[in-house]
Amino acid sequence: MSDSVLTAGSPGHKREPSYLEMDTGHKGIFAWILATDHKRIAQLYFYSMMVMFLVGALIGVLIRLELMAPGRTIMDAQTYNGFFTLHGIIMIFMFVIPGLPAVFGNFVMPIMIGAKDVAFPRVNLLSWYLYVAGGIIVLVSQFVGGGPPDGGWTFYAPYSVKSATNIGMAALGAFMLGFSSILTGLNFLVTIHRLRAPGMDFWKMPLFVWSLYATGWIQILATPVVGITLVLIVFERVFQLGFFDPAFGGDPILFQHLFWIYSHPAVYIMILPAMGAISEIIPTFAQRTIFGYKAIAVSSMLIAFVGYFVWGHHMYTSGMSETAKWVFSFITFLVAIPSAIKVFNWIATLYKGSINIDTPLLYAVAFIFTFMIGGFTGLIIGSVAQDIHLHDTTFVVGHFHYIVFGGVGFAFFGALHYWFPKIYGKMYNAKLANIAWGLFFFGFNVLYFPMFIAGYMGMPRRYFDYLPDFYIPNLISTMGSWFLYAGIILMIYNLVKARRSGPPAPANPWNGVTLEWQIQSPPTYENFDEIPVIKDNPYTFKKESARHE
Amino acid sequence: MSDHSASPAHAHVHRDDTGSKLGMWFFIFTEILLFGALFIVYSVYRFKNQDAFHAAALNLDTVIGTINTVILLVSSATIAMAISALQQKNKRLAIILMIATLALAGGFLVNKYFEWGAKFHHGLYPGAEHLVSLGPGQNQFFFLYFFMTGLHAFHVIVGMGFIIFVMRQVMRDQLTFDNYTRLENAGLYWHLVDLIWIYLFPLFYLIH
Hints:
The complex is a heterodimer.
Chain A lengths: L2 H5 L22 H4 L4 H29 L10 H20 L2 H14 L8 H20 L18 H4 L4 H28 L12 H33 L12 H35 L6 H14 L15 H29 L8 H24 L1 H7 L3 H31 L5 H28 L13 H31 L48
Chain B lengths: L16 H32 L1 H8 L4 H26 L3 H31 L7 H5 L2 H36 L9 H26 L2
Helix pairs in contact in B: 1-6, 1-7, 2-6, 3-4, 3-7, 4-6, 6-7
């Protein structure tokens, strides 16, 4: 690696204008919404996604308030149906699916492989426009037509076809969000294949890049299936084509198959980049090389591959042959193996490491904790016999949120605290960040753990009202949501304050060794003065810069 | 990776022919999975309504279908020849071959228009009393027929737009004998349009 790259940003070196200060030839907001720089597009995604996340989380809090006690609490049943549908569509399609790839994948992946940008910068911007257009369509669908869509984010036929509410428009919005996701995945795949710095073969890529590579394949191969399925729903509503209507020889179960053929792999679109980010944070804060690099890299690909063949576990009670059930159940158990490989390797990396307990590591540890609970409960409902009892109960809601919020959410905010100094060139208040993390983690567990108990007792999910027997777990759960939301607000306050008036961040605050820490904070428009030449594995922690010799 | 940056401000603009083609291939994978889902729907409903699908397929005009298949196959050849012509610096021939491809594509759509028009005329469209009276299976066949050939026709139109776009660039010498990847990508996309039809044609017209 050249010296100019290594010394950039270190004291005494003259700092060059960063991508934030760069003159792009456009004024004001156009310097952003017409930007093709991967770092600016990452920020466009970040701000739009955070807005959607806060709206989705607020709706979540309102849903919890309604469920605090049996009977009507703050809203009527139809509003409740609209709220849990909107909560699902926003959180799934606009936060966790674009999630880490669109924000941190865009920002750090090209830097991690020593590139100046992604392969198709303008397509990258187009992805963001599709994201915004899809988001606007979903939001507008709340206010026009037959009223806010209900029936949940899964758009199950035949209800989604028969409901008088504005489901068609919401499905169209979700289709566009899917298109955006496909283009991001395609862009990343080509970038990773073509733009790696000299010397960086696949086995020298950072693990976050590996996880994005696996994710990219799921995005381009699974998303079109749900895309066309949602278009079928729209056509069925608009042109009276009865694809899923038994009166016309259609089959509603087929809709469920098509939906989950995408939507189960989509869970891996969500979680794989999260695992990738954790694989970056852990070696940096243990200050030692990652344990089992190849095992973690290969397990990402295995999860992506095996994840295609487990969709049937969402449908044990829908009507399938007994053989199909146990085959799907068996493959579901198989997919737990590569996930466990990662967890063991993370723990082994921490073992005898020289651990710095900073905020990103706290998030990473919280991720491992919640992901393990989510994973083990996944095995419980992955086995057919128990699923018959637990299907469609709040047990499933608890499991799902432990994986998707406890997994992706903690990884997202961990990644945010990890790369924040690099993105903005500012440091945040670590003490406040840790307090916010504590509130978040405490509130999270208080919110979602009681759902396992209520579900085990038999409380159905998505119901507006419930029997008095389930009062206590629901009450505790609702109280947890307050802590959780307070933690999020405190975290955002802390980060906004840091962005405005935080002390300047050094180029490498955590003593990381991947390429993004070798350039100044925030990076220049072109990331590197000279494209680095890679000779070593990405996680070689040695004194000085011996790894670059 | 070769980096032909013109000025520091445009340092991101690099040319990577293999990368562009790779991107087009990935997009084609996506398209195949898009239609793949519809092929699953088709096979499930064919399995469930075998007799009705058989009876409904008899209504399709095999002659028009065959003509359209030949048209698309020839148009695939002309777009491939256009690429070869440009590679051999014969810009004029390349443009003629692209116009021929567009004309063939237009012919395909005209045939499609008359074919669909005849179906509407015979009351074989979704919601028509005659079709409803034929029972659920035949309805499902025609839902799929209109949706899948309609989606394919949409791809024909997008492909034509793509070819017109690159044809303008060839005319303006933005695409030349040593810089023809975009034309090649248009050709790849056009072959995809052809490929999908190669599966649609037997599924709807030939299997009785």
